[in-house]
Specification:
- This protein is α+β, with helices and mostly antiparallel strands.
- Among the domains are: 99 residues, no CATH class; 116 residues, TruD, catalytic domain (Pseudouridine synthase), CATH 3.30.2350; 67 residues, no CATH class.
- Helices cover 28% and strands 21% of the residues.
- The strands form four sheets. Strands 3, 4, 5, 6, 7, 8, 15 and 16 form an eight-stranded mixed sheet that branches. The chain has a four-stranded antiparallel sheet with strand order 11-10-12-13. A two-stranded antiparallel sheet has the order 1-2.
- Helix 4 crosses helix 8 and helix 8 packs across helix 10.
- The chain is globular and about 60 Å long.
- The two termini are 25 Å apart.
- One of its GO terms (molecular function) is RNA binding.
Length: 442
């Protein structure tokens, strides 16, 4: 049975279906930053915790040109925090490495590294309300992505209009169904696009199509409703690119390319990544709509090793008549997964036969191809692409507490881990099944 999303915004972002039919518990997330805690889990099992950072042993310490530090954020996105640190430490933005972009509307703890920080003691004085360095050590090496296993989430859903026994019953039913379907659908979550004004993927498409005017138009729709021209005179960071674009256009009205270049290159890439994510979501939804399985391969599918949300092309191969039975046995043991492309210029292998229909239909609908991501007009922005599993599981799920909030509602506190590249909000949408994702805190 195919269950369509209850949300118009989710349809717009390609998250068109649920894989469970369990009743929605409803409720709201992120009522407070402490309701959505994100803590990194390293490959050696170390958890970069919020409340006991002084006890965390930062790995790979020793003499060297790098500082490794624990960054704690409250209601702040990772890039803004990195920008603040780069100014405080007087190092370039790119001198700071991190293992992932954590939720902005959350309380999070993550590991970072800083190259050539001359006065590391200044890190412990950075307490800007939203950003704090809890601990640091010297290190000979910068952070590398392979060091990250995933993230641990501690989440409270509030204002659930159900008694505790019905909440637990719905969760039990959901877990049974997730097991049968092979996991949660590996959609890219809402925050990849922005939920209040989801324009990132639209800007990304405009960039790869060399439509600079369109990209700027989409960006400027993201200005707050109370924005006035007087605010142009305020001091803004390099990440307030909307204002920087407006300032440039006020001086040089016809210089669209110059205005767009005010957007930092790292954000330009993130726009393109958002469009790649949108295409994947649409392909995954098309596969569900066509009735193709998520937890079993059909002849023509591509399969790979599902260690994380991104699978290198060298670890992907074709399911054929000669190997389909063995492939499906390995999928059942969670050693393999059916994958779809996160499209890029180096995406050579695509599914075949019936398995190709979800990919071909979406690319035709969008009018793009793998070559679109070579961006000859902007070589620094070209994206090679990768592959992504169709499903994922959470680990170490624990229902911490279900308790009444008032006479008409309850709260649910839960904790679980996800491997890197997967989204807690995709888990939560199956539990809450929100109709209005903004009101529900997504």
């Amino acid at each position: 049975m195919i269950v369509k999303t209850r949300s118009d915004l989710e349809r717009e972002l390609g998250l068109e279906y649920y894989v469970t039919t369990s009743p929605p518990i409803r409720g709201k997330i992120r009522c407070r930053y402490e309701d959505f805690i994100v803590e990194e889990v390293l490959r050696d099992g170390t958890v970069i915790t919020i409340d006991s950072c002084e006890k965390v042993k930062i790995p790979i310490r020793g003499p060297g040109n790098y500082i490794r530090a624990i960054l704690v954020k409250r209601g702040c996105d990772t890039l803004s925090a990195v920008y603040l640190l780069s100014r405080a430490c007087k190092v370039p933005f790119h001198a700071i490495s991190y293992l992932g972009l954590k939720d902005a509307r959350a309380l999070s703890a993550q590991l970072i590294s800083i190259k050539d920080c001359k006065e590391p003691s200044i890190l412990l004085t950075i307490k800007k309300g939203k950003v704090e360095i809890a601990k640091y050590v010297r290190s000979p090496l910068p952070l590398k992505r392979h060091e990250l296993y995933g993230n641990r989430f501690t989440i409270i859903i509030r204002k659930i209009p159900l008694p505790p026994e019905e909440i637990l019953s719905a969760l039990t039913e959901l877990l049974k169904q997730v097991h049968l379907t092979g996991g949660f659908p590996a959609y890219f979550g809402h925050q990849r696009f922005g939920t209040i004004k989801p324009i990132s993927h639209k800007v990304g498409k405009a960039i790869i199509m060399n439509d600079i005017e369109g990209a700027i138009s989409h960006i400027l729709t993201n200005l707050p409703e109370d924005f006035t021209s007087q605010k142009l005179n305020a001091t803004y960071s390099a990440l307030n690119y909307e204002v920087l674009i407006l300032k440039h256009l006020m001086k040089k009205r016809d210089d669209l390319l110059g205005a767009f270049k005010k957007v930092p290159i790292i954000l330009q890439r993130l726009f393109i990544h958002a469009y790649q994510s949108y295409l994947f979501n649409k392909m995954l939804s098309a596969r569900i709509r066509l009735g193709l399985p998520l937890n079993r391969a059909v002849v023509g599918d591509l399969v790979g090793f599902p260690h994380a949300g991104s699978i290198h092309p060298s670890c992907v191969f074709l399911a054929e008549k000669s190997n389909i039975e063995k492939v499906n046995r390995l999928i059942e043991k969670r050693l393999l997964s059916v994958v779809l492309p996160v499209l890029g210029y180096a995406t050579i292998r695509l599914p075949k036969h019936k398995a190709a229909e979800p990919v071909i239909s979406i690319l035709e609908e969008e009018g793009v191809s793998a070559d679109s991501f070579s961006t000859p007009h902007a070589p620094k922005l070209k994206c090679p692409g990768t592959y992504r599993p169709l499903t994922f599981y959470f680990e170490d799920l624990k229902v911490v507490q279900v308790s009444p909030e008032d006479e008409s509602s309850c709260s649910l506190k839960m904790r679980f881990k996800l491997r890197r590249g997967f989204y807690a909000t995709v888990v939560l949408r199956e539990i809450i099944k929100p109709k209005n994702v903004i009101e529900c805190g997504f």
